[in-house]
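Need the bound structure for NAP, inputs here:
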Amino acid sequence: MKAGCRLPAKRFHKHIWPVQPKPLYLNGEFIAADKTLSVRNPATGETIAQMSTCGRDHVAQALADAHAAFQSWRNVVGRTRGDFLLKIAVEVERRKDEFARTITLENGKPLAQSAGEVAMTIDHLRWFAEEARRGYGRVIPPQVEGKRHLVIKSPIGVVAAISPWNFPLVLAVRKVAAALAAGCTVVLKPASATPLCAVLFAECVHAANLPKGAFQLVAGSAAEIAAEFLENPLCRKITFTGSTEVGKKLIAGAAAQVKPLSLELGGHSPVLVFDDADLAKAVEGTMIAKYRNTGQSCIAANRIYVQRGLAEKFIAAFVERVKALKVGSGLEPGVDIGPLINPAAVDLAMKHIVDAQAKGAQLLCGGQRWGEAGSAFLQPTVLTGVPGASLGMCDETFAPVAYVNVFDTEAEAIARANDTTYGLAAYVFTHDLNRAFRLMESLEAGMIGINDGVPTTSNAPFGGVKQSGWGRELGSDGLDAFLDTKHVSLAL
Ligand code: NAP
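Answer from helper R.:
Posting the output first, comments after.
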């Protein structure tokens, strides 16, 4: 039994809270701790579970155990590492309904979207199961006689992963699967609002018999845990998804050890709809880009610009679709818009809505809280004529709030799209191939959807430019993020 923890290590087969808190997963053992945090259902505000937490000493132990596990995991051949990931994928698939329900309970999103998140998680696991075989190096032709040059790839070592609450399963597994595939061991700290699906995932890892210490789950004070990740030299890399504000703190903290970071940070994605676009496709794509996950997506459409010739028709069709969205608990059938993560998130969104109106924007629908006073629900909202200086045009509105503005020329659209410190995703709706090429080259974003409101896929790089982050996840880049490159010069 670990110091400070009171339960012996055993697998948990049932949800037994309130009798037992949900456990951490440390060095192959499920351990419930005395200190816990409350997990709430954002739709009702009720506490649904207690999650065990740990302090720095346990995190230090987890890193030491991960370091010990790394010595053998790094030498497991890629194909076998992939087989472990496949076993985890099979286990997640077997429990997919339980995962989806858990995501909806702790995060609030509609059940069908939770099921979509689970499906994407399984696909990521399968993708990295295959990628595990492909940590390719290369041979470079010599420049002088008698030399040979090899480039080889080695797993970077122990990885710390910090994940957010908005896609609590898929964004954590995206990191864990890639790190394990590369031959690294990994310690995961999920968001405090949504740790429950990470516990389920740990159960799947355990069921797949992954070697102990290769994957571990910690929870608790983010600042304390991150301090150990940053200061402990056994932790060789931190991979983080979350806000730009916290990303900047990690950059500062990583300086002392020049610790490598992968950062998936905030976004402020523009949508550009041109006169030549297919109206139905543009409306549909913008709806998904804006309202998926109740507007709480890093790649959500935050600023929608429509060319003048199509603006009236687009706005009418878009507002009609938004008015038809069903708001309610994510567990209710047919719901499109669930609660935000907590009532404070609604307060912040309301501040952006009120500010936009005060600065001259016109409200086309929504604009109010939904349900009981103090709840976490917000009506899906559309505003138009939103001045550039308003809060929501300068920073993410992490909520189902759309700002639709009109533009005249392509040059103006590009300038307005790029007029932000962020650069995560951008969306373009046009049928002009030449324009599509001009835009994909000039838009400052890591991901560009052309006539596509959902550009994320396991087999292509995901990440941002500017203050939206460093590095890429998914695709072959996702594996490379956890590999060191070594040049070997051989004199014959
Ligand atoms: P957040 O507040 O930055 O939290 C993200 C994670 O960081 C959580 O696990 C959190 O732990 C932890 N954290 C908080 N303070 C920390 C600190 N001082 N040091 C280290 N870790 C710390 O972000 P969020 O509110 O959960 O997520 C929303 C943001 O994430 C938005 O800006 C969104 O755009 C961005 N995001 C980006 C991507 C992407 O791929 N680029 C994807 C999804 C979301 P606690 O929960 O315990 O506080």
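Comments: The chain has two domains: 3-265+468-489, 269-458. The mean pLDDT is 95.
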